[in-house]
Amino acid sequence: MAGATEGDLVTGGTSQTNAVAAGAVGLAVLLFALALAALFEAITISEPVAGVPVVTLLGLILMALGGAVITFGVGSYLGYVETEPSPSAGLVAATAFSTIWFVIGGLVASQTAGLGSLGSFLVASVVGGGTFALTALPREDIGSTLPAGALTLLTGIVFVTGTIGPSWVWALGFEQQASFTAEFVIPVLTLLCALISGWAAAKAYGGFGARGRHIGAYVLVYVNAGAIIGVLFVLIAFTTLRGVPGLLTGFEFGPGVGPEVGLFGVSVALPFSLPFVMNGAALLNDFQGVLPAIVGTVWLVIGAVVFAVPLGVGAAIFLTEYAERGRLTQAVEVATNGLWSTPSIVFGLFGFAFLVPRFGGNKSLISGMLTLGFMLLPLVLITSREAILAVPDEYRDASAALGVSKWQTIRSVVIPAALPGVVTGVILGVGRIAGETAPILLTMTGGTFVPGGQTVDVIGGFQFTGAPPFVANPELLQATTALPFQLYALITAGVGLGDTVANPADFQWATALILLVVVLSFYAIGIGARYYFRRRLQS
Amino acid sequence: MSETTETAERTETATDQPLETTSGETEEQVREEWREYVFDGRTKLAAEDLDVYYGDDYALKKVSIEIPEESVTALIGPSGCGKSTFLRCLNRMNDRIRSAEVDGSVRIDGQEIYQESVNLVELRKRVGMVFQSPNPFPKSIRENIAYGPEKHGDLQTGLLARLLDRSDEDEREQLVERCLRDAALWDEVQDRLDDNALGLSGGQQQRLCIARCLSVDPEVILMDEPASALDPIATSKIEDLIEELAEDYTVVIVTHNMQQAARISDQTAVFLTGGELVEYGDTDQVFEDPRSERVEDYITGKFG
């Protein structure tokens, strides 16, 4: 790739050397991926790949990468490679490199050479200061490659020679007996070296200078963005892999094996049976399940949303469209933000002390719904307010100029235009409350294991009575369970696990997986709704 | 309906230092002269001693003017001279600005609109408005046109109306077609009435806004620089449309473009800095032979 620079419009003859730099960038990305995989135990560092242990392989790649970076830097300095370096690599790079080399110098002096703390500090200072000078003083092509390449080369040598091998453990000697194992240290070091050398190689690829810095930053930014997606993916994959065995315990497929499902008076037996999500927990069950917790979570979220959304949107309309900016709106703003930062356990205590005595004195589903509704309220209010404020004033003017009243304008123009933003707020809020454990622990939950027969049935629970209030729903006043609480109880207390569940770890992971699925399903519904409302505004 | 009887009162409010004018008269004399300007036709709108303040700032000072019906009246002047403020007084859109205070009188067909018992809904149905940048609702073209009448209850198209068999679907279709035809947009959009209005081009959006304004059957149409955000072709379409509309409606248009004012208007009112109405008369007369020197300077480009 010919670099378009200020000196020459087109520079030629650098394709081979640039290929070296590009190869180094590729090596860095490969190392980054390998290190992440090793960190999350997707590959084991002591296992051999093609006859070579993974740790040695990592070391060899690191050495190649470090060598390539140094070679390119020196080659550029001596004029073999055509580049446009700046006079210096800059203070930021110098500070970063000198800090790293300060630590390395200190570690080598104290751990390998066995110097005391004063000696180690002196050595560390000299190494760190030397690195600072080496980075800041010479031209950029030396300053940004040599410290990075040397670091990577050194790490590679340490891995290959076995100084840090698969069975290496660094006992810190603290009271807590903390220690770092090779399984953790090797991937982390590899990650660090890959990042730094990748950055240096990317700069070299761009021929240093402004263009090189641009490409270096580009690589760092992309690696970070990739890492975020990677973390989410790994988290979901990790939970899924561990949760699936528990989820599929007792899975059967075939006509008539599933439980009877009644809809409008027609009863059909499902063609498959998945006990984990279809059963409760009972002594006589072949397989235990978490159906009551799933249903409890779903009703909990629905109840909180039904309670909080009209209230929050209504308050947002009042604050943005009707209230004059002044003391009142400021007070409401402060109160909202305060409410949003209130710890969830405090909400739980409030529900326990205020709501529970008023709903029959027992923990109940409705207390949990309202407590979570209170938690959801400030976020719905804040995001709805932002969304309504973002609706262009031109719409309001146009409507007013047609003689349409304010309330009709709000109802037919402002709210439809603000809906996608409101839905975004609800999505975020639901994500938070669906996983809350503390508030429902205090307001709603009964036993850890709830039999399938006690699954809450809110719709079927409505009864008409002869006396006021004419409608009653005992199901809402009953204690039930929800997935986050069930998970918490299973892990911390492990209540009754040994007797009722064959493999407790599988059961816990499967519960976590189901919680993740339920929350992500709400998320998907929210995104679908937002997409629908946006489309309605645009097409 | 010239108001010579009140001239004495008005001269008190004129500029303190008399300025020389083209004919050697003072500005007060010029003012008296154009006060006696008589147009053909009936007066539709009349403003009298209209003052507007935003907080402590004067936006309009003692503006008095009469606007004839079924004609185009252009309001021109430099930025910040109060012509848009004046326009917004005519349908009380200034009520929406909390800091704005209006003092004086505006009459439509002789009825005062600045009094307690005025029905704002009825006023704004009679005095429609088109804004500077096109502002269709993010709804379909059909819904944009039908919006006003539906909200006013003149068209019943909701679910309840359909269930009760009182739905005005046909009336709505006729209304949409009539308004779009009047706004010279029907041929371009008749096949896509259900498409979102935001998908139209800028010029089409502005004509849609004019059509929407026509949907509530106004008598007066106020336009606040309706073509300033449009390209020359769209602008010329809007100008043609304005001239057609003036056959049935009273059009008052604010514009920065003096050629536009000269092309399309019958009367021209010139506002100058400080919120004063400096000259008002037949467009030809104002542009070719302005009485005030300041107006001549402005029109010839010596003064902004």
From TrEMBL, chain A:
Q: Chief location of this protein?
A: membrane
Segments crossing the lipid bilayer? 19-40, 52-78, 90-109, 115-137, 149-172, 184-205, 217-241, 261-284, 296-319, 339-357, 364-382, 509-533
Q: Which GO terms describe its biological process?
A: phosphate ion transmembrane transport
Domain ABC transmembrane type-1 span(s) in chain numbering: 294-526
For this chain, one GO molecular function annotation is: phosphate transmembrane transporter activity
Would you name any one GO CC term? Answer: plasma membrane
Q: How does it sit in the membrane?
A: Multi-pass membrane protein
List locations, semicolon-separated: Cell membrane
Q: Does the keyword Transferase apply?
A: no
Q: Which UniProt keywords apply?
A: Cell membrane, Membrane, Transmembrane, Transmembrane helix, Transport
Family assignment from sequence similarity: Belongs to the binding-protein-dependent transport system permease family. CysTW subfamily.
**By what name is this protein known?**
Phosphate transport system permease protein PstA
Taxonomy-wise, where does this protein's organism fall, top ranks first? Answer: Archaea, Methanobacteriati, Methanobacteriota, Stenosarchaea group, Halobacteria
From TrEMBL, chain B:
> Pfam families from the xrefs?
ABC_tran
Q: What is this protein called?
A: Phosphate ABC transporter ATP-binding protein
Instruction: Give the CDD domains listed for this entry.
Output: ABC_PstB_phosphate_transporter (cd03260)
Tell me the PROSITE patterns matching this sequence: ABC_TRANSPORTER_1, ABC_TRANSPORTER_2
Species, as recorded = Haloglomus irregulare
- Recorded GO CC terms: membrane
Record-level GO BP terms: phosphate ion transmembrane transport
Disordered: annotated segments:
1-31
Keywords for this protein: ATP-binding, Cell membrane, Membrane, Nucleotide-binding, Transport
Q: Residue ranges of the ABC transporter domain?
A: 45-299
Q: Which GO terms describe its molecular function?
A: ATP binding; ATP hydrolysis activity; phosphate transmembrane transporter activity
Question: Which InterPro entries does the record associate with it?
Answer: AAA+_ATPase, ABC_transporter-like_ATP-bd, ABC_transporter-like_CS, P-loop_NTPase, PstB-like
Q: Which gene encodes it?
A: pstB
